[in-house]
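Lecture notes, unit on protein representations.

Consider one protein chain, 85 amino acids long.
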Amino acid sequence: MPAGWTESERPSLLHRRFEFDDYDETRRFLAFLESLSKELGLYPDLSFARTHVRVTVHGPDGGAVGAEEREFAARAGAFSSKEVV
């Protein structure tokens, strides 16, 4: 499982809360998630405020979380780590 994520089996999903120093960092992260979603064709549930974003990635069609969902989670985590000091 990608670092920092919590996995649930019922329902099958990955969940993580990302913290940021300011709204500009939050916006950059949301823009990255938009791009990543379009690239992978995977659209997670998002909720956000000024300095945090909650991301929930569900398994396809109610099934188990697979490689594509884990890739999304790993890449989101890597971008967050790179952008936020």
